[in-house]
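In this section we walk through a basic example: taking a raw amino acid sequence and producing a predicted 3D structure, encoded as discrete structure tokens. The instruction is simple. Fold the sequence below.
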Amino acid sequence: MRKTSRRLLMSLGEVAPVQLGIALRRSFARGYTLSSLKADAMAGGVVGIVALPLSMALAIAVGVPPQHGLYTAIVAGFFVALFGGSKFQVTGPTAAFVVILAPIVAKYGLDGLLTAGLMAGIILLAMGIARLGRLIEFIPHPVTTGFTAGIATVIATLQIKDVLGLSIAKMPDAYTEKLAALWGARASTSFAELGTAATTLALLLAIPRLTKRIPAPLLAIGFVSIVATLLARTFPAFHVATIGTRFHSQVGDHVVAGIPPLPPMPRMPWGGGGISFAMLHDLVGPALAIALLGAIESLLSAVIADAMTGRKHDPNGELIALGIGNVITPFFGGIAATGALARTATNIRAGAVSPISAMIHAVFVLVAVLVAAPLVAYVPMAALAALLLLVAWNMSDVRHAIHVIRVAPRSDVFVLVTCYGLTVIFDMVMAIGVGVVLAALLFMKRMSELTSTRLVSAESEEHRAIPKGVALYEIAGPLFFGAAQRAMDTLEVVSADARAVVLALGAVPVIDATGLVALESALERLRLQRKIVVIAGPLPEPRKVFDKANLEEHYGSVFVAPTLVEALQLASDLLLLSPQGAPSSQSNVAPA
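The resulting token sequence is shown next.
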């Protein structure tokens, strides 16, 4: 495996030597001092404290033991920072992945989840090598807002079970069935669990207002864990589920409550049973979904980090690093990882100066696993659920979504609401696919509205210079499939007195195949009406298309002039040679 990894990294270095590890190289090139290391160490420690409860909570929300979330923060957090293109990005498990990974675990188990993560890493590597990092800019804002709010809704819904302590043997897959199961189990509500969750949530909201030196999750969950343990020992009737009561690990011959006090150990992602073609075939779709969401979330996080710091990340380098991280992590029991916006923002606010802070965060989590694993067993499940409720609320950004709905055009609101509904009811992949298609159709409609047309005759007061018998037809804007037919239809109302038509295309920057077909159809109609056509002032791109189509040779009555003035003069000269308009034959006779 070591030889394979070495060959992979060597080949990547040959394919994209400028991108691999560019953020770390830039940090050292600018001068990395002892004070820089101290700043990174402090920031890495702060982020590590934030990542500890979040990584466990997210792994539990996905449906796997909490240590797999910690392994993700350790392995992916280290390697993506080492090879990445963003100086401040912190990588690990994120809330957005819950809605994709949970169904994979339910259907294929942990081995299927790790295998899908490995496949997603390979896809991300291919995306980075193919330099697709900039494609994130083409996903419309209503789409990202809609599916992000939808993901937050699903995550919040999944936490209701632990917040209320409901007795549900197995949570259904469909969202509406989840709601029905939660409602059906309402009689099993535990006020001890609810009180634990409410106390944790209140502390998470109150602590940042009192102090920001110590991360609120550490204080809130630590305090609630201590109080819940004391209450359980003092009052036997008081009982809340904890990581220790919910999860157990085998360490040698002993069963350990909670997480094992061991570092991430090498293992095959697909387990000891091997991997089959049928399994790979079934996991292609989930792997694509993981890769797509991972790329979107990581690059969005890097863009926001750039805005906070004034620096510039390398999107393709970040994708390659994210791919490397997701290829390596499953071999150590880690689940899919991507850039974590909240942890990245915390990293920046804590004073990070280079990717070393994110690497130190990974080391901090590793040390915590080795030293504090027995204490993790006392963390209440309701406390972690309350933490994820707050994460879901912040992720949804309700105020911004309401603002977009209130001020944006109705078409954008429709896209946002559609993406939200599809994410909640079905899944994020369908939401993004449908949302992008809807946004593209709306974009084409708006672009077609930018293309304007005017038909001007010789009798017009505005154009007294137009020769008699000549009609001027002006088109401004792109002549592509969203606007071509509408632009050409106006030519059908050309006056019968006009024996020559000048098409002014000097303001048409581009023309596509549909635009060319619509233009050729119009030219054919005008030829049958025996009208001479002069195309005026085509820009370089349309002119290339006209030359390839051989318009002047194919249509005997079509000519091209570089400017509008020359086109009007040419039309006038052609009418002198042929007063009745274009000849019935298709032979092109140029004026003497």
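Looking at the output, two observations stand out. The chain has a mean pLDDT of 87. Residues 19-174+181-440 form one domain. In the next section we compare this with other chains.
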